[in-house]
Amino acid sequence: MPGSPRRPPLRVLVTGGPTRAYLDRVRYLSNFSSGELAFELCRELKRRGIAVALVCGPSEFPFESLRLRHLDRVETAEQMRAAVLRRCRGFVPTHAVFAAAVLDFVPARREKGKVSSRARWIVELKPTPKIVDAVGRAFPGTRRFGFKLEWERPGEQAVVRLGRRLLRTKGLEGVCVNYLSEIRGKRHPAVLFLRDGRSLRLRGKRAIARALAAEIAGG
């Protein structure tokens, strides 16, 4: 009697760290992200014997020490998007975890040289394309996990509605919702909402990494 079909090897694409957008030759916009969560996630996936490709913005964490299958260091949101799509074509991930803090807005133009500090400077911003959505459209077979960072936590029902809406509208396997006002040092509370209806209350980046790795390994 033939056995059940073998599961294909797991390959996970992870994004991490912040991105930058240059205003002129010496100044840039960025956002809050150290890359620690991506580091913990890559380490946990590697511990489970899963092949990992990472696309990471500026971070001081020693990702090279993890000996990942692929490691792309990038700086801007545009570079991150291009690297992610390139790895999706070549690495063909079974799963993708979008843990990077990608800028939602970038300057409409980059000034040449250095703008004088003596002058008033008005900067126009334009929205950036969502990388998680681009992967969903181009590679629908990749199972995606997203993150949503807001500022201040509302009531519990509002958190649940947000998580469930993101799962539904973006077609995600899971989404991790957290609030910057609650993050203090190693304290990093979050709620991981999963497509099967479960929700996991997590208290730190290592716990988030372990929960995501467990879902990927078990799914």
Portion of residues in beta strands equals 15-25%
Spans of at least 5 consecutive residues with low confidence: none
How is the biggest beta sheet arranged?
8 strands, mixed
Question: What is the residue-mean pLDDT, rounded to a whole number?
Answer: 93
Quickly name the level 1 CATH class of one domain.
Answer: Alpha Beta
Say how many strands there are.
Answer: 12
User: What would you call the quaternary organization?
Assistant: single chain
Which structural class is indicated by helix and strand composition?
alpha/beta
CATH topology of one domain: Rossmann fold
Gross geometry: globular
The CATH fourth-level homologous superfamily of one domain: CoaB-like
In what order do the strands lie side by side in the largest sheet? 5-4-1-6-9-10-11-12
Radius of gyration: 18 Å
Gross CATH architecture of one domain = 3-Layer(aba) Sandwich
How many helical stretches?
A: 5
